[in-house]
Amino acid sequence: MAQAPGPAKLDHLLDRNVAWAQRRTRDDPTFFVRMSEQQTPKYLWIGCSDSRVTANDVLDLDPGEVFVHRNIANVAHSSDMNLLAVLEYAVNVLRVQHVIVCGHYGCGGIERALGDDRSALVDFWLQPLMMFYRKHKAVFDALPDRRSRLDLMCEINVEMQVRRVAATPIVENAWLHKMPLYVYGWVYGTADGLLRKLGPTLSSLAERDSLVSIDDRLLMPVEPQSGVRQQAIDAFTALLDGKSSR
Ligand SMILES: [Zn+2]
Question: Could you give the CA distance from residue 90 to residue 93 in angstroms, rounded to a whole number?
């Protein structure tokens, strides 16, 4: 019978922590002094729990620079007290002005929503995505393969969640009081480490209310990257051994 892991089994993680703290202090002697005083993140990241998509790494930011909420498939349920508390604290206390909803290609949560298995608790969590997929199955079925369907759903899910975040009373209240607050939708490529912008950035009630519905959005092409950034992405992906750019 396999032995249950004991506390000592994780000593290597504690050792890594000590080495990390020593390295940080050596590189920046006042780093932890500053960290202990207060956090002043400029960004709130709403992302997937996927272990490959960690906000600080992807954005190349230090501890203290990004406030984070993650769940399976970066879903913004309007009744999720966890998300709402994080969002409220970020906007009203930390005065974060940039809310980034970030999905990723190859998302296991999205893949499950597109499948037939409904045997786990996560299926309740993913229900809005399943319903959307079922409603528009003909559009997805017209795509050439499963990968294309998954990619499209990953992108559409981000835009759906951007709309949901922008519909929360927290964001509405901020915009009503003319607070500067931007909501972005991005998607991350686990195969190249690059972020891609999706859809419009929202900064007011008027912008939000002028959006087409997510159902109509499905039938529109995803907005292209702006020129310079697209050139940089093209140059980088050309280096990736001719593999998939995602
Ligand atoms: Zn995911």
Answer: 6
- φ, ψ of residue 119 to 5 degrees: the values are -105, 10
Report all structural domains of the chain as residue ranges with CATH numbers, in order of start.
Answer: 41-237 (3.40.1050.10)
From the list 39, 76, 48, 51, the residue with the least C-alpha distance to 170 is 76
**Residue 218, pLDDT score:** 87
**Ligand 1 geometric centre to CA of 228 (Å):** 28
CA 109 / ligand 1 centre spacing (Å): 5
Q: Is the model's pTM score more than 0.85?
A: yes
| 104 Cα–ligand 1 center, Å | 6
CB-proximal residues (5 Å) to ion ligand 1: 48, 50, 107, 109
Q: Give me the residues of the chain with pLDDT under 50, please.
A: 245-246
- Residue 7: per-residue pLDDT: 60
